[in-house]
Design goal:
- This is Leucine rich repeat containing 2.
- It comes from Balaenoptera musculus (Blue whale).
- Keywords: Leucine-rich repeat, Repeat.
- By secondary structure, this protein is α/β, with parallel strands linked by helices.
- The chain is 29% helix and 14% strand.
- The radius of gyration is 33 Å and the shape is extended.
Length: 371
C-alpha cells in the first residue's frame, strides 16, 4: 500500500480563521469602549493636557474653570494663536525699538557712507559689509553711544584716530579689509571687549597703547603678517581667547604666562619649532592648537592626561595658491580660502568641546585644505 495522504477542505480552515479574527476584533472594540468610559483614561488625558499647557506657559485660569479642565483641542489651538500673536507683537515692537539705534549697509554699489548718517549720532551699532568703502569718516567721534562697529569685508585701508573717542565701544570687527595698521588711539576705548582683525593680510603689529584695554577678552589677529605676539596683547589681563594663527610666528614669548585668564590659544599655520614651558603656568588654558610639522620640542606635561588642557597638534599640509590674472579675483579667492579655513577650525573646535572623553593629546590630525 502507498502512503496515506490526509486531505483537508480549505474552506473549513478559512472559516476557522475568519471566526477567530471576528472574535479578536470584537474584543478590541469592547476594550476600546471600556477605556473610553474609564476614569483613569480621562485623568491621563487631563494630566497630559495640563502638562502641555504648563510647558507652553499657559496660565491655569485659562483652561481650568470651577475645577473642571477643558481639554478641547480647539481651546489649546486658540490659546497658542493668541500667545503667538502677543509674542509676535512684542518681538516687532522690540525690533522696531532696536532698529532705531542700528545702522545697516551692504552692497558693492556703496563707495562711501551716505551723508545723512552724520545726523544720526544716536546710533549704537554700525553693521557695514561687502561694500567698496575705503574710509571711515572722522565724524565717527560724534557717535558717543556707539557700542558695536561691525565692518567686515569692505575695502577699508585705515581707521581714523577719532575712533578713540568712542568710550562705550565694546566690539570692533574689521575682518577682511585692507588695514596695514591700527590707530594707537584705539587704546582709549577702555570698554572694548572684542577686537577682530582677521584676514587683513598686511597687519604686522598692534600699537603698544592697546595695553590699556583691560576689558578685552577676545582677540583675533589671524591671517596677517605678525612675526611675534604683540606686547600689548601680553598686557591684556582679561584676555580669554587669542587667535594668532596663520601668521609668521617663529616662537612664543617666555612671559606668555602673563595671560592668566587665557582659555583658548590658536597658533596653527605658523613656523613654531618649540613651545615654552611658560605655557604650563596658564592654569585656565583648556585648548591649545598648533601646527605640528615644525615642532621639535614641547613640554611633556602638555600631554599629561591629568591636565584639563586639550593639546591638538595639526599636520599642516602645504596649500597651493592659484594666482589669477585679475588682482581683485586673487583677493577674493584668498578671502574665501581664509574664511573657509576659519569656519573649518571653528567647527573642529566646537566638536572638541562637545566631546567629554577626548584624550588630552591628539597627534597628527590631518588638516589638508585644498581651496
Amino acid at each position: 500500500m502507498g502512503p496515506k495522504v490526509v486531505v483537508f477542505d480549505i474552506s473549513v480552515i478559512r472559516a476557522l480563521w475568519e471566526t477567530r479574527v471576528k472574535k479578536h476584533k470584537a474584543w478590541q472594540k469592547q476594550e476600546a469602549e471600556r477605556l473610553q468610559k474609564s476614569a483613569l483614561e480621562k485623568i491621563k488625558e487631563e494630566w497630559s493636557f495640563v502638562a502641555e499647557c504648563r510647558r507652553k506657559g499657559i496660565p491655569q485660569a485659562v483652561y481650568c474653570k470651577n475645577g473642571f479642565i477643558d481639554t478641547s483641542v480647539r481651546l489649546l489651538d486658540k490659546i497658542e494663536r493668541n500667545s503667538l500673536a502677543k509674542q509676535s507683537a512684542v518681538s516687532k515692537e522690540r525690533d522696531k525699538r532696536s532698529s532705531e539705534f542700528v545702522f545697516e549697509l551692504t552692497g558693492e554699489h556703496w563707495k562711501e557712507l551716505p551723508d545723512s548718517l552724520k545726523e544720526q549720532t544716536h546710533l549704537k551699532e554700525w553693521h557695514i559689509s561687502n561694500t567698496l568703502i575705503q574710509i571711515i569718516p572722522k565724524y565717527i567721534e560724534l557717535f558717543q553711544a556707539m557700542r558695536i562697529l561691525d565692518l567686515p569685508k569692505n575695502q577699508i585701508s585705515c581707521l581714523p584716530a577719532e575712533i578713540g573717542h568712542l568710550k562705550n565701544l565694546k566690539e570692533l570687527n574689521v575682518r577682511f579689509n585692507r588695514l596695514k595698521s591700527i590707530p594707537p588711539e584705539l587704546g582709549d576705548c577702555e570698554n572694548l571687549e572684542k577686537l577682530d582683525c582677521f584676514g587683513n593680510l598686511e597687519l604686522t603689529e598692534l600699537p603698544f597703547e592697546l595695553s590699556n584695554l583691560k576689558q578685552v577678552s577676545f582677540i583675533d589677529i589671524s591671517a596677517n603678517k605678525f612675526s611675534s605676539v604683540p606686547i600689548c596683547v601680553l598686557r591684556m589681563s582679561n584676555l580669554q581667547w587669542l587667535d594668532i594663527s596663520n601668521n609668521n610666528l617663529n616662537d612664543l614669548p617666555q612671559d606668555i604666562d602673563r595671560l592668566q585668564e587665557l582659555q583658548t590659544l590658536l597658533l596653527y599655520k605658523n613656523k613654531l619649532t618649540y613651545l615654552p614651558f611658560a605655557l604650563l603656568n596658564l592654569k585656565k588654558l583648556t585648548l591649545l592648537v598648533v601646527s605640528g610639522d615644525h615642532l621639535v620640542e614641547l613640554p611633556t606635561a602638555l600631554c599629561d592626561s591629568s591636565t584639563p588642557l586639550k593639546f591638538v597638534s595639526l599636520m599642516d599640509n602645504p596649500i597651493e595658491n592659484t594666482q589669477c590674472q585679475d588682482g581683485n579675483e586673487t583677493m577674493e579667492s584668498e578671502q574665501d580660502r581664509q574664511h573657509f579655513d576659519k569656519e573649518f577650525m571653528k567647527a573642529y573646535i566646537e566638536d572638541l568641546k562637545e566631546r567629554e572623553s577626548l584624550p588630552s593629546y591628539t597627534t597628527k590630525v590631518s588638516f589638508s585644505l585644498q581651496l
